[in-house]
Recover the amino acids of this structure.
């Protein structure tokens, strides 16, 4: 008589089940790094992973050129974020094509894809700090240096917590143990990140509203519109991650890749290309604002 299907808990325990997704069309290779279930909740799409890797690599090349051309070293974190995105989606390609049960592939892709937006957010924080310094500190609710110190620190703390939680989820599922505690750790990191970035959006909104006439006078409305759009896209992605984790493993958001594609991949790729089109080095670089005698007030 055959045993129970892979991923089905027959122990009768009252604790939440540790069941997961098993692809009937992709047998588990049973290698050293293979776990009983596919932690993604689905078999990742190879096409999506390749598309993402290619688009992020193209944006990386453009951002690297722009960083060198405009010497905007303070915005170089975006280039780093794109290196992470490419690495993450390459690992996801390996999961999709070679072995979706492979725990190491999952951890690598998760680490890089989750960490990459932190460097992108750091670039966003730097843009606001530079705008506050160059447009006028009197429009800002807090000192420009505090923007970087507070929000970069918050993102680091939140991301370390998320990675720890995600790693524990992988370990728990590999042992067919209840991953609820690990998921709660991940949830806590995401909740803090959503809160911190929400505060940043409020501060940025206050500054841009107060400085709206100055921004219009310097013909920076198009750039600030792109900056706001990119910021909200990154925030949307963070809110999605929070909702996905709050719903729990096996939830609708977690177990359908379409949500990952629309609410993780798409917002970040749009944000980085917005900054390609409206690069801070070209729009608010030294030459653009130094011509105004009030630029450093």
């Amino acid at each position: 008589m055959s045993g129970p299907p892979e991923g089905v808990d027959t122990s009768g325990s009252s604790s939440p089940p540790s069941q997961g997704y098993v692809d009937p069309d992709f047998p588990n290779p049973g290698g050293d790094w293979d776990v009983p279930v596919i932690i993604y909740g689905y078999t990742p799409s190879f096409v999506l992973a390749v598309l993402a890797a290619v688009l992020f690599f193209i944006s990386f090349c453009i951002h690297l050129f722009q960083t060198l051309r405009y010497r905007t070293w303070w915005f170089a974190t975006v280039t780093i974020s794109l290196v992470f995105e490419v690495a993450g989606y390459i690992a996801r390609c390996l999961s999709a094509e070679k072995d979706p049960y492979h725990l190491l592939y999952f951890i690598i892709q998760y680490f890089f894809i989750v960490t990459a937006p932190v460097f992108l957010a750091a670039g966003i924080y730097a843009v606001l700090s530079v705008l506050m310094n160059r447009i006028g500190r009197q429009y800002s609710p807090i000192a420009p240096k505090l923007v970087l110190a507070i929000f970069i620190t918050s993102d680091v703390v939140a991301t370390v917590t998320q990675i720890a939680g995600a790693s524990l989820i992988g370990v728990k599922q590999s042992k067919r143990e209840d991953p609820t505690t690990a998921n709660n750790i991940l949830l806590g990191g995401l909740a803090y990140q959503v809160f911190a970035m929400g505060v940043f959006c409020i501060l940025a909104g206050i500054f841009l509203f107060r400085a709206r006439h100055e921004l219009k006078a310097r013909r920076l409305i198009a750039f600030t519109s792109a900056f706001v759009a990119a910021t909200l896209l990154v925030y949307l992605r963070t809110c999605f991650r929070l909702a996905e984790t709050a719903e729990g493993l096996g939830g609708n958001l977690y177990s359908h890749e379409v949500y990952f594609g629309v609410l993780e991949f798409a917002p970040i790729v749009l944000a980085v290309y917005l900054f390609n089109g409206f690069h801070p080095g070209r729009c608010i670089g030294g030459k653009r604002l130094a011509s105004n005698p009030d630029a450093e007030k």
Q: What stands out?
A: The first helix runs from residue 46 to 70.
